[in-house]
Amino acid sequence: MTKAGPNRILSRAQRESSTLTTLCAGCYNVLKRTAFHATHTLTPQQAINTFNEEQFTGGVEVLHFLEVLRDRIGFDAVEKAVKAPLNGLQVGAYYGCLLLRPSDEMSLDDPNRPSIMEDLLARLGCTPIDYPARTQCCGSYLSVNSAEPSEALARDIVQSARKSGAKVLAVSCPLCKYNLEIGLNTADSIPIIYFTQLLGLALGVDPQQLQLGEDQLQRIREAQKIEAM
Amino acid sequence: MTLSSTPKRVGVFVCHCGLNIAGTVNVDEVVDRAKKQKGVVFAIDHKYLCSEPGQTLVRDSIKQQHLDAVVVAACSPAMHESTFKNVVQSAGLNRYNCEIANIREQGSWVHEDHERATKKSHIAVRQAIEKVNLNEALQPIMVPVTRRVLVVGGGIAGIRAALDVANAGYEVYLVEKSGTIGGRMAQLSETFPTLDCSTCILGPLMVEAYRHPNIKLFRLSKVEDVKGYIGNFKVTISQEPAYVDVAKCNACGECAKVCPAEVPNEFDMGLTWRKAIYTPFAQAVPPAYVLDSKNCLGLLPQACGECKKACDKFGTSCINLDAWPQNHELEVGAIIAATGYELYDATKLTEYGYGTNPDIMTSLEFERMLSASGPTSGEIRCPSDGRVPKEVVFIQCAGQREPETGLPYCSKICCMYTARHAMMFHHKVPDGQAFIFYMDIRAGGKGYEEFVKRCQEEKGLLYLRGRVAKVYDENGKLIVRGVDTLSGKTVEIKADIVVLAVGMIPSADSHELASKLKASLDMYGFFAEAHPKLRPLESPTAGIYLAGAGHAPKDIPDTVAQASGAASKALDLLSSPTLEREPTVAKVTGELCSGCGICIPLCPYTALSLSPITKVAEVSAALCEGCGTCIASCPSGALTLRNLTDEQILAMVEAIVAS
């Protein structure tokens, strides 16, 4: 019964379209796994269906926007559209856990050595930085009721990225972004940027429209300059 | 179908099997109800029918009661069918006048309801009575035996099996795919638990096998085709040329000096390089160079030929670059499959980072480094920069016992060799520290537990119970992040070398060989045995015997024991010039057969053919295993299975339904 919510979303989505794109790793995880369980009959659908007014029949594919860029649009096309390449920007891609795991159900990328974000960032001109903590958990909703462990995790992740030379962290989930930003004091922090903001910059979109703060933008430009020297 | 006009006088014997049967099944009731069946003139129970008094009871009753046929209600026929058939035969009856009603494995053991288990046992007895009534008196089929053995695989298992058969006086063909015999054991530095030098104990056996007058070695060879059946296999072997005359080569090595083609040395697990013309290792047998045609710059047409020039000038003119592959037709009575193992691909274990950093290595790579003949002459060095490692982390069960992402099974030897590796590391780097992540220590074997304890206590190895989540590189140091479940804390260890105890998988060619032998494999690709407990040396396919890690992960003592066991099984077969085969095989009624040939390609044992004279199907009784596939396929009902005819099956079904 706990899957009634996502099942309802899926059943309504399949009325509208054959694909459902998410921007949040958490939503992606819940929706994709619910769809997987429903189509592989791993959950008793009958119970859910009696609860819901509409039935999900597997008619919608759940995608993360990263997947749309890679598989539908293609990174080649993305690269061609780049107007202002972010040359020299050392970006650490942060995946977290929900985007990739459990890998047999998510099947987006290798859960231990993913590359989808690095592949995209490289096309935007960035220099992707590999660092150990990029698939570690950010604490997810833990930050809501018990900030301490979540902050420790966030510190670990950001420090790991900084040590490896990342000047900016690109994330694919708003909750990860929140956790990584909130847990750090300003001295330690590096800009945590949702990956579409970097995509927008590279495509030549006005930074204000991208909701990039003055400070963040300045630090991105500085990082690029340091590298250029 | 020959039916005796007078009905058979049937005796029914019901076994208690102690409480195994009698604890659930009411044996007295089964006996009483059996007595009431048509044709049954005698029924009795016994506590242990398979015991000597039990067998005597059956034998005496047959004589006293003038029985024509016997039904034994007891355990599975896989257990004691032959026992009771022998008893029946010894009492003067044809052995096929005996049927087993399985009331243990399919009765008492799997049911709790006494009443229903008793009823089911009665039904089993009834249908056995119907079947035995219609059984023909058959004679075993006698087939001649070719008294030679083929051993596939030249590792320690194949060598031991070949030597045992050869020492008993029979000829052996030993087929090995590489340029030398020795297999995995030759790669090992020491062996647990006694720390014997592996090559020192293997080397003499390799030489003995090579020099044995009864063993013919086919190296660089593979089995191409297998025809025939137990006692009479016809095997085709294809052999790649070595391009070097073994009789002339004195292993001077002049050829390798000038060879321009360098490839990773598989004997050193790719840690060193070798030339395209090379000797696999110092103790290789035969002790000659061999040219690896795949990596040679070119033989057809000849591209380089430097080796031949050098050999002609400085050596013994033993290189012939115009050699051709050869096929050999061999006739053997038994085949021993000793195909060995490979390591699970460590790059699949992405969390451990194998392949991203040379200091993350597999246990077999570390083994080569420990070896005096290895890439570092036995010194332990970090492959990345050659420094002496101070902290080494060993990860046991790497990718093993993980049904979801790796191998679900345990490879059995890793606990032992990891303890040995860690001990040897401390030996060679006394101020170093070894950390071992383990799930539990499986040291079941003679002297094994003592060995592990000794390693732990004497050498101060740090055993951490838990799994490693991740291995990553941070500024040139490997960080191993794991959990110590005994303290409940996560641990981070900075390591110079990480050694992964990856699991054993069947060697890549075993699948192909199995399909040629028609030998079944288990779910992991290891050779399946005929019975996991009672027939662990034999494949379900008659005449195929199993030895070594191609059957299941095992250590050297177990491998050697199994190899000798498989050899003695083969010798058992060879001990007689003829062989008895079960006559319960398919039979063609020529008058009914239309010669359509549907059955012929379906036969898994190639036992069926179309007679060139009568144009109807013919069964080679020696090849037929009595599986019944052809019978089910025959559109005209011309095929029947001896002693399991349609008439018998219907009578049995009727008996079951009527009960």
Described by the principal axes of the CA atoms, the overall outline of chain A is: globular
Q: From the coordinates shown, what is the CATH architecture of the largest domain in chain A?
A: 3-Layer(aba) Sandwich
Distance between the termini of chain B: 26 Å
Q: What is the terminal-to-terminal distance of chain A?
A: 58 Å
* Major beta sheet summary of chain A: 4 strands, parallel
Helix content of chain B: 25-40%
| The first-level CATH class name of the largest domain in chain B | Alpha Beta
Key terms:
heterodimer, A: 229 residues, alpha/beta, Rossmann fold, four-stranded parallel β-sheet, two-stranded parallel sheet, 12 helices, 6 strands, globular, B: 659 residues, FAD/NAD(P)-binding domain, 5 domains, five-stranded parallel β-sheet, 28% helix
Short summary of the structure?
The complex is a heterodimer of chains A (229) and B (659). Chain A has 229 residues and is of the alpha/beta class. Chain A is built from 12 helices and 6 strands.
SSE blueprint:
The complex is a heterodimer of chains A (229) and B (659).
Chain A: H1 4-16, E1 19-22, H2 25-39, H3 45-51, E2 61-64, H4 65-73, H5 75-81, E3 90-94, H6 103-106, H7 116-123, E4 127-129, H8 142-145, H9 147-163, E5 168-171, H10 174-182, E6 192-194, H11 195-203, H12 214-228
Helix pairs in contact in A: 1-2, 4-5, 9-10
Chain B: E1 10-15, H1 19-22, H2 27-35, E2 40-46, H3 52-64, E3 69-74, H4 77-90, E4 98-102, H5 114-134, E5 141-144, E6 148-152, H6 156-167, E7 171-175, E8 190-191, E9 196-197, H7 198-211, E10 215-218, E11 221-229, E12 232-239, H8 254-258, E13 262-264, E14 273-275, E15 277-278, E16 290-291, H9 306-314, E17 326-332, E18 334-337, E19 341-343, E20 360-362, H10 363-370, E21 391-398, H11 414-428, E22 433-438, H12 448-459, E23 462-465, E24 468-474, E25 477-484, E26 489-495, E27 497-502, E28 504-506, H13 510-517, E29 544-546, H14 556-574, E30 578-581, E31 586-588, H15 599-602, E32 608-610, E33 617-619, H16 629-633, E34 639-641, H17 646-658
Parallel strand pairs in B: 1-2, 1-3, 3-4, 6-7, 6-18, 7-10, 18-29, 20-27, 21-22, 21-27, 22-23
Antiparallel strand pairs in B: 5-30, 8-9, 11-12, 12-17, 13-14, 15-16, 19-28, 24-25, 25-26, 31-34, 32-33
